[in-house]
Amino acid sequence: QVQLVESGGGLVQAGGSRRLSCTASGGTFSRYFMGWFRQAPGKNREFVASIWQNDYYVDSVKGRFTISRDNAKNTVYLQMNALTPEDTAVYFCTAREGGEWEFWGQGTQVTVSS
Prior knowledge:
By secondary structure, the chain is an all-beta fold. It contains no helices and eleven strands. Strand 9 (about 90-95) and strand 10 form a beta hairpin. The mean pLDDT is about 95.
């Protein structure tokens, strides 16, 4: 069983940056495909980015967000730049070894003010 704990959320002004972190415990981190999802008020949870050896992004964040991982620290990061109010959401860290996202963190709120 993998436990995921996110941190780094908060209030940021439009155009600003924020880095989210997610630290994993209880598994072999390097074996897991790691990802970030987000859920805005009244909307479904959506994929943001994922990484194993390569990284993948939803179109709306390409060029602004960067996902990275440090296997020695069991941590995955999401660097978010040029934030807009549309990025306001609860951001969730997730992990999978197989085809479905199995493990989820509790989420961290990011609020972008205009």
